[in-house]
UniProtKB/TrEMBL annotation:
Binding site for ATP: 10-15, 116
Pathway recorded for this protein: Metabolic intermediate biosynthesis; chorismate biosynthesis; chorismate from D-erythrose 4-phosphate and phosphoenolpyruvate: step 5/7
Keyword Cell inner membrane: no
Subcellular location: Cytoplasm
EC number of this enzyme: 2.7.1.71
Catalytic activity entry: shikimate + ATP = 3-phosphoshikimate + ADP + H(+)
Coiled coil regions in record: none
Annotated GO biological process: amino acid biosynthetic process; aromatic amino acid family biosynthetic process; chorismate biosynthetic process
Protein name, as recorded: Shikimate kinase
Amino acid sequence: MKAVLVGFMGSGKTTIGRLLAENLKTSHIDLDQVIVEHVGKSINDIFEEEGEQSFRQLEHRLLQQQLTQDGILSTGGGTPIMPANQYLLRQTNTPVILLEASAQTVVQRVLRDHSRPLVNKLSITQLKGLKQKRDALYRECADLVIKTDQLTPQEIIARILPKIITD
Ligand SMILES: Nc1ncnc2c1ncn2[C@@H]1O[C@H](COP(=O)(O)OP(=O)(O)OP(=O)(O)O)[C@@H](O)[C@H]1O
Ligand SMILES: O=C(O)C1=C[C@@H](O)[C@@H](O)[C@H](O)C1
Ligand SMILES: [Mg+2]
């Protein structure tokens, strides 16, 4: 991989990953999308019919696989939470970039979109609490942190591009 993007739901991993890949003329892989295609079900249906645990196991297996590929990888919002994934993200030579945004910003960005099971299930207060609980784990695996609240996607990729080694 040329870069891995991590961050809470709504931090912009999918949006920025796609743009970054376009800019570098490389492929964009979205781990959530890889899981959806692998199982043949939406994230909501996987959570509901097979349980979060099963989703997490698959997420781990597919993360390990995707890290060996070329391109830009957007992870899922919960990917760095599993210790085995934290290990993979820390030991990879690929730059791991954390897209940071305040709890208020991420909640605003995801609230109207019902494709995320945790957003459907949790109250705003619980979502903010979950973010706070996870924030340290995102930071632990990151080589670069970008505060995105006041930045446009173009401004964000301009900050990431110098960190990416292309060959
Ligand atoms: N810098 C930004 N400024 C304004 N809106 C943004 C920015 N980044 C992302 N968004 C918007 O926020 C929403 C969520 O973004 P996105 O789907 O990329 O998040 P994500 O990190 O991939 O979330 P998930 O972890 O659930 O996959 C989208 O509607 C996107 O257009
Ligand atoms: O933050 C999370 O735990 C999640 C984020 C999404 O990207 C999906 O991976 C799924 O909805 C779980
Ligand atoms: Mg995404």
